[in-house]
Amino acid sequence: MNVLKIVAALAAIAAGGVHAAHAVEVRKVAEVKAAPAVVWAKVGEWCAIKSWHPAIADCKPGKKGVRTLTLKDGGQILEKITKTGPNTYSYDIIDSPLPVKNYSATLTAKVDSLGTTDLVWTAKFDPAKGKTAAEAEAVIAGIFDAGLNNIKTNIKFDAPAVGVAPAAAPATAAAPAAAAAKVAPLTAAAKAAARDEARLKAREERRKRYEAAKLAAMEKYARAKAVFAEKAKAAADAAKAAYEKAKAALTAPAAPATPATSVPKKT
User: Is 226 helix (H, G, I), strand (E, B) or coil?
Assistant: First the structure.
């Protein structure tokens, strides 16, 4: 009996391992010229997707981290948040008309090497019954592209003024601590924005220096190439002239020999 239980448990583990290995993975990245904190403030709220994804008509948050997305064609997608962190969240699809199952995804805004943002959207899933992996991948990739491209082209990211915290309402005697608590995060956000702005400016300066050096190198190369071409042409012309001269000398007719004058013999 114990052997049978062990076999059944191993079979269940094996089945679970197969289920966990998703058939399809999609990863899309949008480069956004703003700091991650600024980008996430616009797109990272659980139902903010209705403001930046062109296919979403509405989003209604529910209990226990669930949201209901209403598509512009009338369809609905039920999703549940599974994990959150600084500038990131992960979620599963509970029910949808999409051609996928066992769907898990993550949206993250992370700083890139230049101080701006890589907005990364990834998903792992299996194709729904009757659908191929290619069909499911094409649908999800299209959804990701539509949302990220809309963020890049249509969403405005306005960072707080560098070094300036938004004005706070005067604190009443009853709630000075609450007012201070509101000002502190805003000041921290302004400082973060200042750092991000400085990194962005430094990146732009590096890019300008690189472009200037590249242009100077190209001009120097072009001048050297022109001088070399001119010298090569002069050498070729000289060689051609020498060849023509030698050829003319070899092919010129020889001058007739002058007959010798005979001297009469003395008798």
Answer: helix
CA-angle at 127, arms to 123 and 128, nearest 5°: 125
122 within 8 A of 27, measured Cβ to Cβ = yes
pTM to 2 decimal places: 0.55
Give per-residue pLDDT as tens, 192-224. 666 666 767 777 777 777 778 887 888 888 888
Sheet with 76-85, edge to edge strand ranges = 24-32, 117-127, 100-111, 88-95, 76-85, 66-71, 56-61
Confidence at residue 55, expressed as pLDDT on a 0 to 100 scale: 97
d(CA 196, CA 201) in angstroms, rounded, equals 9
Q: Report the pLDDT value the prediction gives residue 182, as an integer from 0 to 100.
A: 42
CATH topology (fold) of 21-154: Alpha-D-Glucose-1,6-Bisphosphate; Chain A, domain 4 (3.30.530)
Return phi, psi of residue 166, to 5°.
-55, 145
Separation of alpha carbons 111 and 106, rounded Å: 16
Token duo for residue 257: 């020999």
User: Which stretches in the chain have pLDDT values below 50?
Assistant: 1, 3-20, 160-186
Q: What number of other Cβ atoms are within 10 A of residue 168's Cβ?
A: 13
- Residue 141's nearest CA partner among 1, 11, 10, 28 is 28
CA triple 44-48-54, angle to 5 deg: 115
> Angle at Cα 45 formed by Cα 39 and Cα 48, nearest 5°?
90
